Structures are given as structure tokens and as C-alpha cells.
Amino acid sequence: MAPDSSPLVDLKTLDRDGLAAFVAEQGWPSFRAKQLFGWLYGKGATHFEAITVLPKAMREQLAAVACIGTIEEVQRQVATDGTVKLLYALSTGRRVESVLIPDFDEATGKAKRLTVCVSSQVGCAMGCHFCATGLMGFHQNLSPGEIHDQVYHLNTLALERFGKGVTNVVFMGMGAPLQNYRNVVAATRLLTDPIGLILSSKRITISTVGLARRIRTLADDIAAGTAPPVRLAISLHAPTDGQRSAIMPVNRSEKTDLAALKDAVQHYTRTTGQRVTYEYCVFAARNDQPEAARNLARVARWAPSKVNLIMYNPVEGTAFTSTDEAALNRFIRVLVDEGVRVTVRRSRGQDIDAACGQLAVLDG
Question: What is the side-by-side strand order in the sheet with 111-117?
Fold first, then answer.
């Protein structure tokens, strides 16, 4: 009989149900699926010999039919503010970046919050004119395991550097998360699993440029219990269709313009009971005028929400610059007077191109 030439099953592409089906195919007791899950996603096993809870014969059988997909760290950069950016190689040879952002307590100097900015795609198809990732174009979706492993690796790094594990995860790295919907939701299940990293779903935020249909789907899946109740952030960046379409091509369709986004956001907040966050990069002479702030306030009143103003980080090849402090303060004052809850996010990791909108790889 000719040897079996079937490709190996990558166990890091399987969730609990997938592992259960795989274990059943091998003719093993069902409890082995839970053991495999815990070792893959809780202990970070990268080869079968490390899974010592399995008998040697089972490990040998696994090696014959399966593999454990891994991402490999190829570069590490540390910013002056403590932000760490990692560059990973995927099994396809493409590369992706993710970032660990520490928030320090001023009194003690210790990290009080550790956020991972995770990537969900290599590149991005959305083409936002101000974003380095968008300039790359789209190359590849990441699997649930590849998304999970970014967080797992940076959690290990956080424990080593700061003596504390990751507290928050934001899907604000490379890619448009809701374009890779199935894998992103699967990754959130892995991250929140009680025998995985056990992260709180309340501390996981998925960002979107405004894919209205996917926002509605996420709301319905959260309500049905098939997706963890994660938080939602909308990358808005302009408060009118004219302004937004000029810098974000996604807004040029009636399926994803502000009217569609309004309906989707209202559905999300009604269905989940959660508010949304509007992310708004403040660009000099483009969207930082008082009139833009008043229009932004009208958007913020669509549904329970808050606004997160982001100081823009320079991206080579674009004509966008950050607003100055005086214009920012005027903008904030208008929002406050309009009753909008507003926060300001300052640049982190800018000196290593790890800040918002700066993630990109040349060979992706």
C-alpha cells in the first residue's frame, strides 16, 4: 500500500470542537481533546514531545498525522517609553507585527496595565490613506492560532519584563479584523477559554473601519453566546460622508457609509447592551476644526458611546500630520460642551514605528 500523502493537520487551526472531532477520528477517548487544548493554548506547546500528559504512542501517532503551527519571532524592538514591538514570521513566509504597550503607575513606576495590540491580517485591503498597513495592500488572513500566539508570546514577555501578565487585548494591529471575522471570533474564544490564557472578554476590543454587516453579525453572535461579549471600537476619523470618503475608501459604498454605520451601531448597542468607542485620529487642517467636533458629537449621540481622540503618528508616504495642542484643546472643549465623553490617547512606541497606524512590513 502506498504511504498516506495527506497533508498534516495543523492543530493550531482547531478550536475545542475541532480538536474533539480530530481526537474522535484517531479513536481516542474524548478527554484527550481537553488535554490537547490545554497544552496547545494554555501551556504553549510547540511540539508533541512536550505534551507529556499523552502516552508516547499517542505522541508518535500525532506526529504522523498532525503538526503544531507556530509563529517565529524574528525581530524585537523596545521604545524609550517601554513599548515593545515584535516581528513574527508565519509558516507562509510572510511577516506580521504586534505590540506590547505598558501603562505605568506614576507613583510606583510599575506597570498597572499591559495591552497587546494584535494583528489579524498581513496587510489590509481597506486602503485608508493615512495608515501604513493600508499602504501594504492585503496579503493573508491569520488563523485563530496565529492570532492567539501573538498574545501568548507577548504575555510571556510581559511576565518576564514587568512581572505581570497581559491585561488587555486590542485588535488594532495590522488588518481589518472583521474582514477575517470567523478567525478573529475564534481567536477571542481561545483567549478567553478557562483552560487557555483566561483573559476577560471585557478587556478585549475589536476595531473596525465600519463594516456594517459584520458589526450586526458580531452583535447577534454575542447575543447568541457564540462569540464572547468583547468590546467594539469604530475607526471613524471623520464625522461626515464627504470627509470620511476622502480618506477612507470603505465609506464610499452605501453598505458601509455613515448611514449604514449608524444602523449597525444602534443594532449593536441595543442587542448587546454595550456602548461603542469611536476612534478618531486628529489630523491638522483636515478634521480638527470646531465644526468637525460638532459633527462628531452628532455621531456620538447615535447610541451610547465615548470618543477616543488619537494623536496621529507620522507615516512616510502620506500627507497627513497631527494637529497641534491648541487645536486639540479647542476640539476637546467643543465635544465636552456637547456632552460627549472623550479621552485622548497619546502616541506610544512612536520611535520604533509601533504606534497607531504605523505597523507595516516591507516583505509582507
Answer: 72-78, 84-89, 95-104, 111-117, 168-171, 204-208, 231-235, 276-282, 305-311, 342-345
Query: Of the listed 117, 124, 281, 356, which one is catalytic?
Result: 356
pLDDT in tens, 227-269: 999 999 999 999 999 999 999 999 999 999 999 999 999 999 9
The residue whose grid cell reads 486590542 is 170
Q: Which three cell numbers stand for residue 116?
A: 497587546
Catalytic residue among 97, 124, 279, 281: 97
- What are the φ/ψ torsions at residue 254 (nearest 5 degrees)? -70, -15
For each of the domains in the chain, give its residue range(s) and CATH number, in order of start: 9-67 (1.10.150.530), 72-352 (3.20.20.70)
Cell matching residue 86: 515584535
State residue 356's pLDDT score: 52
pLDDT tier at 348, thresholds 50, 70, 90: low
97 is catalytic: yes
Q: What is the 3-state secondary structure (H, E, C) of the chain?
A: CCCCCCCCEEHHHCCHHHHHHHHHHCCCCCHHHHHHHHHHHHCCCCCHHHCCCCCHHHHHHHHHHEECCCCEEEEEEECCCCCEEEEEECCCCCEEEEEEEEEECCCCCCEEEEEEECCCEEECCCCCCCCHHHHHCEEEECCHHHHHHHHHHHHHHHHHHHCCCCCEEEECCCCCHHHHHHHHHHHHHHHHCCCCCCCCHHHEEEEECCCHHHHHHHHHHHHHCCCCCCEEEEECCCCCHHHHHHHCHHHHCCCCCHHHHHHHHHHHHHHHCCCEEEEEEEECCCCCCHHHHHHHHHHHCCCCEEEEEEECCCCCCCCCCECCHHHHHHHHHHHHHCCCCEEEECCCCHHHCCCCCCCCCCCC
Q: Is 106 known to be catalytic?
A: no
Q: Provide the residue count of the chain.
A: 364
Give this prediction's pTM.
Answer: 0.92
- Does residue 52 have a pLDDT over 60? yes
Bridge partners (DSSP) of residue 283 are 322
